[in-house]
Amino acid sequence: MERFEVYIFTALCSVNFLISCLLFSKITREQRDPYMDEIFHVPQAQKYCEGKFNEWDPMITTLPGLYLVSVGLIKPVVWLADLKGSVVCSTAMLRFINLLFNSGNLYIIYLIICRLHMKDKSRSATRRMFSALALSTFPVLYFFTFLYYTDAGSTFFTLFMYLMALYGCHKAAALLGICAILFRQTNIIWVAFCAGTVVAQKMDESWRNESKKRDEKSPSQVPLTISGAMKVVRFLLEFLKTPNNIKAVVLSTWPYITVALVFVAFVVLNDGIVVGDRSSHEAFPGYVFAAWNFLDTLRSKSLFWLLVFSTCLVAATVPQKLLEFRYFILPYLLYRVHIPVPSLPRLLLEFGLYTAVNAATVYIFIYKTFQWPDNTAAQRFMW
């Protein structure tokens, strides 16, 4: 990153944080008490702040990552500032943790874009920065920056894990994967994705070697025909039957395998993963269109990478019984960072659209309240 780019990006991060703080202040003034899922998250975090780590609300289905990080960040501040009373681990202070994650997400997304597109000299620093800014303000993710939900932290640790995997720091990536799982159990899928990219890379190398011997096309150019599919299946079977290939894969992915084994042990001891009860299978036509669009825009990626990404994408979205837009945050961001950085006019249009949606969402949340017939408390529209 050149010095000019550092200065501009630092200023961009500062402005983003300032605007987010102003919105945070307004939302917190209007909704001081815990709202929706916060009625579970806030009291649980406050118990952890009091050192009551053995007390757990059985209604909570996530692991305690958000609460542990909150205590780890708040306690030193409380000690240094000598804070006492209700301000310590208040709803507002707990929500502020997600503002920090929002800034972190902007930075991590920018680093991922730079890493993935570092060979493309046509992508200017301005386009990289605006692309990261636009993605960090993705409306579904950005809205939950202002509430005490797990989305901002889950996204941060998952993207951080992927960044480390891109740099080949797989032990660090696996540790960050544990942090991501502590925020949301289904992030084990993205741990598998990081491991899968390593396997896909080795398969690419093996395929290229075989292609050179036979003077055939590269993985990304395999025709979408029955014969092409059969050729890939035969290659996969041959690859998996070779002991040296298995050894190389295990040695490269053992940190992720360790995390997966620990997670399986947890699931067995915990008697499974708790999920919601509303079916998302009605969205199948939407999944089909999204899959076609993803594969079309990612056609420059290798075949084996596409297989890994598609498998993880399906596992993260289709089986979900609780249909919420928040479940599509990570699939969308991981998809977007891989496609070529759009032109500056398109980025400005996207950022403007996201800004308008965010403004409308915050406005409706604050000012367009309503009441249920059997409840006098103000209810608010949200994602």
TrEMBL record:
It is a multi-pass membrane protein. Pfam families: DIE2_ALG10. The chain crosses the membrane at residues 6-25, 60-81, 93-118, 130-150, 156-183, 248-269, 303-323, 344-366. Keywords: Endoplasmic reticulum, Glycosyltransferase, Membrane, Transferase, Transmembrane, Transmembrane helix. It catalyses: an alpha-D-Glc-(1->3)-alpha-D-Glc-(1->3)-alpha-D-Man-(1->2)-alpha-D-Man-(1->2)-alpha-D-Man-(1->3)-[alpha-D-Man-(1->2)-alpha-D-Man-(1->3)-[alpha-D-Man-(1->2)-alpha-D-Man-(1->6)]-alpha-D-Man-(1->6)]-beta-D-Man-(1->4)-beta-D-GlcNAc-(1->4)-alpha-D-GlcNAc-diphospho-di-trans,poly-cis-dolichol + a di-trans,poly-cis-dolichyl beta-D-glucosyl phosphate = a alpha-D-Glc-(1->2)-alpha-D-Glc-(1->3)-alpha-D-Glc-(1->3)-alpha-D-Man-(1->2)-alpha-D-Man-(1->2)-alpha-D-Man-(1->3)-[alpha-D-Man-(1->2)-alpha-D-Man-(1->3)-[alpha-D-Man-(1->2)-alpha-D-Man-(1->6)]-alpha-D-Man-(1->6)]-beta-D-Man-(1->4)-beta-D-GlcNAc-(1->4)-alpha-D-GlcNAc-diphospho-di-trans,poly-cis-dolichol + a di-trans,poly-cis-dolichyl phosphate + H(+). Its EC number is 2.4.1.256. It is an enzyme of class 2 (transferase). Dol-P-Glc:Glc(2)Man(9)GlcNAc(2)-PP-Dol alpha-1,2-glucosyltransferase that operates in the biosynthetic pathway of dolichol-linked oligosaccharides, the glycan precursors employed in protein asparagine (N)-glycosylation. The assembly of dolichol-linked oligosaccharides begins on the cytosolic side of the endoplasmic reticulum membrane and finishes in its lumen. The sequential addition of sugars to dolichol pyrophosphate produces dolichol-linked oligosaccharides containing fourteen sugars, including two GlcNAcs, nine mannoses and three glucoses. This is Dol-P-Glc:Glc(2)Man(9)GlcNAc(2)-PP-Dol alpha-1,2-glucosyltransferase. It comes from Cirrhinus molitorella. The lineage of its organism: Eukaryota, Metazoa, Chordata, Craniata, Vertebrata.
